[in-house]
């Protein structure tokens, strides 16, 4: 049987039942869940002052599901210093993990020479491997970290990848101007893309039509173009590749900050439309149709939206501006995740912004512009640092 996570509706039921004094097992029977699932949910997402709140719990669950997450080793300076020192001394990750467990459980065991004090911390060998594979190659070399297998990335589970789609926005050679075709006027450049075996690598080429000067530059990891790609998803993939290759540190954060600025600008430029959209999110409208002996009456009504309706509007809006942008914009708006009112206002704002017709085109435009800016920057670096052949 497939494992199904708790939905916002389930969390609303848990919140109502817990406030009514129901036991964990009674809530589990009511929802058709295991008692351990309900117990774990209440333990993870209850606050000291307000208890279990459905919106707070749902936001925390979304943040825990978000990827990438900060690794255990990278998030602990003491543990990171110990792991870096032992890796530089040619210890394997499993040897380091075993030694840390031994030192933590047996006080008589002394540290190895040149190994910082771990202060009783332990970590698994897999966590150390994940820490190593997340570090760019250049930083690994500077730290003197080399695995015995000589690998800097995890071995792929598949033998190869299928080739991606054609170049997006490609202009055929037959459509070039007469000056460029005759090679008489300098300054006309011809670009192309070389895709390696199984589509696992690619390189960009630029040829000056008159002189024949050719530039060749390897592109970042996994940035092969995809046909009809979503501009925001294309930007996210490019940001992850540039950050993984160490070309643009914190590229993912920079990309989301640029998109957050677009959303802030739209809110400032269209305050009336935004206020109207927020009112629509906070109001649930309905109607009643009655018929009797050929007579028909229509009654319309409206009422304030509850948390479930607001969450449904937020999810619909998140699909429009992509879930990743919606989640990080919620974090940008609501720094205190335990404040129920702030979180509610942030969800309403995201849902309302997604309803504006200008929002998605502006986000796509900003994503395409930043992608082009980063790719142009890398080509310029290749020219200036002698990376061309």
UniProtKB/TrEMBL annotation:
<dbReference type="InterPro" id="IPR025246">
    <property type="entry name" value="IS30-like_HTH"/>
</dbReference>
<feature type="domain" description="Transposase IS30-like HTH">
    <location>
        <begin position="6"/>
        <end position="45"/>
    </location>
</feature>
<dbReference type="Pfam" id="PF13936">
    <property type="entry name" value="HTH_38"/>
</dbReference>
<protein>
    <recommendedName>
        <fullName>Transposase IS30-like HTH domain-containing protein</fullName>
    </recommendedName>
</protein>
<keyword id="KW-0233">DNA recombination</keyword>
<dbReference type="InterPro" id="IPR053392">
    <property type="entry name" value="Transposase_IS30-like"/>
</dbReference>
<dbReference type="InterPro" id="IPR051917">
    <property type="entry name" value="Transposase-Integrase"/>
</dbReference>
